Amino acid sequence: MRLLSKFSHRVRSLFGKKAVDNELNDELKFHLERETQEKIAAGMNPQDARRATMLEFGGLESTREECKDMRRINLISDLVRDTKFGARMLRKNPGFTAIALLTLALGIGANAAIFTLVRGVLLRPLVNRDESRLIYIHQIVNGNGDPNSIFSVPEAQDIRATSKTLTQVGEFSTIGFTMVGLGEPRVIRSGVVDGSYFEVMGLHPVLGRLLDEQDDGPKAEGAIVLTYRFWSGVLNRDPSVIGKTVRLISNGPRSATVVGVLEPSVPYPAETEIIANVVCSPHHLSATMVTSRTHRMTQLFGRLAPGATLAQASAELNGVYSTMAKDHPEAYPKDANIRVEAKLLRDQITSGARTVLLVLLAASGLIFIIACSNVANLILARTVRREGELGIRAALGATSGALRRTLLAENLLLCGAGAVLGILIARPMVAILARYAARYSVRALDLKVDSTMLWVSAGFALLAAILLAFVPRLPVTNASQATTHATGSPRISGGTNRRLRVFAMIQIAASFVLLAGASMLVKTLVSLQSARTAFDTHRVLTFSMPVISNGRPNDQVFTFYRETLRRIREVPGVDCVAMGAIIPWREAGTFSPGTEFTVDGYVPGSGEGSPRAQFRAVSPGFFASLGVPIVAGRDFNDLDRLTSEPVAIISQSVAQRMFPNQDAIGRRISWVGSMMKSFLPPSMRIVGVTADIDDEHIIPGASLTIYHPFEQVGMGGRLFVHTSADPYALVAPITRVVRGMSTDQPLERPTTLADVRAEVLTPDRLNAFVFSGFALVALAIAVVGVAGVLAFSVSARTREFGIRLAIGAQPRHLLAAVIREGAIMAGAGIIVGVGCGFALARLAGTYFQGAQMPGISVVIVSALLLLAAAVIASALPAIRAARVDVIQALRAE
Amino acid sequence: MSKPTDLVQGTLDLLILKTIMLEPAHGWAIAHRIRQISKEVLQVNQGALYPALHRLEQQGWITAEWGESENNRKAKFYSLTKDGRKYMQREQANWERLSAAIGLVVKTS
Predict the structure, then answer these.
(1) Is residue A850 left, alpha or beta, with left meaning phi > 0 and alpha meaning psi from -120 to 50?
(2) Looking at this predicted complex, what is its ipTM?
(3) How distant is the Cα of A40 from the closest Cα of chain B, in angstroms?
(4) In A325-383, where do the E strands start and end?
């Protein structure tokens, strides 16, 4: 009963506000009249009676307020009133409002975006079933410095057979196919898995089924599963693909049926278009793959048995490994120092991105600090101007809490609006940052912007508002002081001034750190972009045209390609055309970091191993197509065929290294090692020497390369076309020629070498772009901050400047004084920034390798930039100080 | 007339509730009656009375109604609710216990 009446009472107080107020007035008025009446009845005259009553009653207004307070609705109505008032104040100062809003929006938006990214990539669980028991196994080979070595099939079998801590083990390797039958013939990457892979990974099909035990082994039918990205992107979610037959061409053609489509999931360990069973790839069934312990192509995933831990699994795997090493000493060199480790798959996937994301998090944290301190400055400056008004309010009886509430309401409004703006900024920011982070972890591609961002933004906004509400110092609630402040001129106390300066210095320090980081990245980018290459990048068009044999005998295949090249040469506009082995830079690393070779009569120096060179196969005219000169001997020609003498062309660095001051032509050169010898001639005669072509690194260095004629080794697959006209105009005619020769031949990715280079540099470009963006934002905010502080301090010292001018100071002295003040603030901030940056870099060095200290030039440039910005920021207030009208200044009080 | 004594909030509540226990009264009448019954010792300040009345109303111990006063003007009359009556009895018991204890201490020292 009581609750009900309480509730209705409160509702009435809230909604019938006006009526309730009137009632209260009536009630108190009645009391006054009644008391007056009483006094008159006691003998006073009416006037005295009324006056006495009023005096007795005391503070009518405060009584009224207290009654209303008792009704406990004041909190809400006060907040509403404060908010309306706050909105009006903000509207009256559009400059302040705009800057503060923008600053907050950037700070909150950046943080919300980065938080979403971090959460989506690092914290979100994988879509795989029961992913906390899904592990990834790898070898750490300390001997040759390879931290992520994988397994061979016999090793995988041993592990599977003996492991008790793992209930199941799945295998995954990658191979390239040319796939014909789903649209255009195309070159694709495919995963090749065993029957237990999908079971181990715990994934589900979106259509059809996934590969399982029945697809395992050499006797099964060919079957493939399409990945979701491929199916929804390239095939437009066509449901009729299930059951279609395709031809997969690698070492020989195989046919396979499409049995299903995989659900969207992280493409680990490699992004592939399809996943096939073992029987689709002749290489996987070959003796090398199945029996060789050292042919390591397979990645292993496992499921922890119930009750087993990661540590137990790792220990057991190491045990299996020692047994293997004992039983097969020929495959495991003694000094390799191999360790096997099991890791949670989720950790494996995100480890690449962790660094980047943490750096981003730090950067955005800095921006948030800068933004908040900037707004704090602005608010502090404004509050001091309002000291008079706040003083009057305090004198009228507003408690300290009430004043803070006023400020809080205003700040909430500001921060709320800033948060809304920030969310609008955050959405596109997330998209950009996700694409950027996707290079480090494929999980970023999968990111969804969800309501977490809203909560995070709201949280940040609230945090900012509360922090900022406590920034200004409230006036003393003392009547006498309040009246002296009421004139409205701001009185700068030492405390306020100090706070302002501290904030400005924090901003400058943080901006400096960001600037230094960004400059470093920009410097790297510039050095990459401006690196000159040996060859003519704008006039060379490249295609990917893999060599497929289709079961034909070798000489038919070579005739086909020779004829295709001849026909392409006849297309108008083509200067020369040739086949090469890889697209420079884009496909760098396709062949291992170098294979050992030797020449006849070469004796390695003591302590040296055999030198290493890159293997390449090219057709005649390759060097001319790239615009690279042949410095000695000849190019390959049509006479260098499979049946003729094996020949080779070497790069200049090889010649200088192996035949210093001698003629290389006619000498014999050969590769070392069984793998190369299995498909290459045992030794070749050197017929030519060419200038170095470094197609592995953007910044070219000396490169040792040995070229074979494409027809003698049967490898190639990249087309290079040199033209003096617009390269892209040749794409259509060349495609027509190739289609005319064969409908099955894939011809893909026409790109000029210049565009390939830009493509490869995109990540670095993006790096520099993102961080420069951050740094510029920080700089802008810091500049505004410094300007604000100085402007404020100048306007407060108007009287002082007036006096100094009156007693004979030159205006330019005042100008200099203000600018000096600004420079000192900036200088102090920079010193703090250098110290912080140093500490941060040291910290980063302990966590990630490869973190370099920025060079001195970077530090100096950033410092100068900030100093210049600070000086410019001081200029406007300084000019205002110098132009102070003496009389006005003296009078203004 | 002796100086009006400061009254603690809870005590004021008790006085108000006791005053309107027998019949409803408006604010002035409550203050007047308290002064009368206490023989001019307890003079309730209006600045304390009305906030207390509104608080009690808000808490549901008393309820208000507009009616006609003795001089034919509109006034707000307060009366005790059932819960208010129970609350008053509780507070009265507390007060008697408290004042007895204070009396003991004061008498002995």
Answers:
(1) left
(2) 0.85
(3) 14
(4) 338-344
